[in-house]
Amino acid sequence: MSLHSRLRFCILSVLLLAGTAFSVQAQSDRIALVTEIKGTVELAKAGSSSYAKIDWGTPLFEGDRVRTAAGSEAVVLFSNSNMLTVRAGNTYTVTAGNAATSLSGPVRAVDGDLMAAASDLTLHRAGQGEIEVLGGLRSGGDDSAISLTFPRNSKISSSNPVFSWDSSEDFESFTVVVRSDAGEIWSGSTEDLTLEYPSDAPVLEAGKNYFWQVKGEDMLDVFSSPLVSFEVVSDKEMAQIEDGKTQISALFENQVSNSGQLFMIGSMQVKYGLLGEAISTFTKISEANPTSPAVHEILGKLYYEIGLKDEAVIKCSCTFTLTVSVTT
Q1: How far apart are CA 246 and CA 225, in angstroms?
Q2: CATH 2.60.40.10 describes domain 146-232
Q3: Tens-place pLDDT, residues 21-48
Q4: Which of 37, 91, 36, 29 is nearest to 60 (CA)?
Q5: What is the pTM of this model?
């Protein structure tokens, strides 16, 4: 599969993950997604004259009308991977052809291939019932005084990762231990909550599983966190990721859009299994769009995938709350 095809494929993956899947056969009327909002953007559903303010991740259907206020704009990504900007003070009627008009910016093509109709990341997608269930759960907390945050049950793009963790206890120092199947390969100590894997340590081989944990030390005892795993992406995957970032950067050249570009990068990170890095990317989108249920859903499912249940519950609870507030 070419890089263009993979880029289309990973964009669809996150559209599915966000609960806005575009099934060509089953849901051909659901044709677009709002991937960038600046200022005040409103939507009138097809057949309605009533406009309501919308947020990042809003799905669009044939005949919907997107209206931007003065000083505002919206970026719309279509299921065929065409993308356009609705400029300030305009109204754009959503059509499957998504042809550029005088009311919108020029159409930009993400790539020229047919978009994949399915994705292995559909498992990330949370249905409304699942959101309600997760949102109502209490995790009961983690008995561990040290919670490992990155890397965690995910691939990483650097062979010199910066390990990070949280601690509910006031330990005097921490020791990070990295292991392979053959045993311990490196350890280092710090008083902080982060520690970089040094360049003079044994090389972390691409495609190989590693495990790490943190030991917290105080005057009386040593406490060890559970082990979590990580894997470095291959050189081939890294080259593909860098090439993809270059294409995405070119796509948004001379554009003020930020969330849209982050969305593209995050979708690619999910595609290549860089879930921890995708969390960081989608967190930036969340910070720019705090009332968006879609981005909280994405984050909730990503946290669930890497095994941070408390964070997943919080995000899914937020998704449910925001969804209810929008629909009531």
Answers
A1: 38
A2: yes
A3: 333 333 445 678 888 898 999 999 998 9
A4: 29
A5: 0.77
